[in-house]
Amino acid sequence: MSQPAQKIAVIPGDGIGREVVPATLRLLTTVEKRFDLNFSYEIFDWGSDFYLATGAMLPPEGMDTLAKFDSILLGAVGEPDIPDTITLWGLLIPIRRRFEQYINLRPVRTLPGVSGPLSGTDPIDFVIVRENNEGEYSEVGGRLYRGLPEEQAVQESIFTRFGVSRAARFAYELASSRSGKLTSATKSNGIVHTMPFWDEVVEDIGREYQSVSLEPILIDALAAKMVLKPQDFDVIVASNLFGDILSDLGSALTGSIGVAPSANLNPEGKWPSLFEPVHGSAPDIAGKGIANPIGQMWSAAMMLDHLGFPAAGAAIIEAFESVLASGRSTGDLGGTESTDSFTDAVIAALEATQ
After folding, report:
1. Does domain 117-253 sit in CATH 3.40.718.10?
2. Cβ density class 204-227: b for 16+ within 10 Å, e for less
3. Which CATH architecture has domain 1-102+270-354?
4. N or C: which terminus of the chain carries fewer CB neighbours within 10 A?
């Protein structure tokens, strides 16, 4: 008998989001049959076009509508003629904060057949846990004396014991389920208040996890070590800004930010979590049918894992990895497959493992 229906809100968004999201929904239909799952989807045409028509990225009741779903699958947001401060702060960031998605989870893994700057070295496999609601990305600050020689801009970083503690605890839990090694990104030698506070709270939480070893590393040294010895890492916990930068660096090291997934998690399940690739809307290739759907597929796999279907999520990853290992890929990875033909191959690989 099928599982109870999981309600998934789908926001294809902009650019290639409108291509990789339908491709991933086709894959999810196969996953449902294979694992006897039951998903219901509702597609929302929110994003830049909606903004140009209405002056907002989503309708006034949009957040209340999303709150009724079990999960949110997002394609991409971004349009060259609309500032990122509008597209991001009009949709993605409000969703993260309204639904207390205080963890941004980014796996960093070597994929078969994907060449990167560290190809030929040992495989890379670590996870970055980014605090996702406060820190350097607070809304506290402002601009003074606009247009005058003495113009000023003030941006405040907000770190709370509550916010840092819950991010640290999530990272410790994850590390305890993996190798038992946690790295904390800091800059306490130069940022005199917030970073020593971050270190203190992360260390305090660590007393609850005696089986996990903690190593704080200054962010500049950590970035260098990620390039030189990425195999040394397993779980990294970082503030909003540091986590944002490190996760993109990690994706580049493994070969392509275009295949990287992400999860914006409300770990307790009180609110829906959001899953999205990090490649952006890529307007330069939008509409050509050549976009790589792996980032969206991988994000869907993370969604399944969060919803309590880890075997289904693992099957998606195994399927697209097997296609990559066979030498088939889209143009961004040096192959000749279209979005649809690559998706067809992944679906066939998934069906073949039944």
Report:
1. yes
2. ebbeebeebebebbebeebbeebe
3. 3-Layer(aba) Sandwich (3.40)
4. N
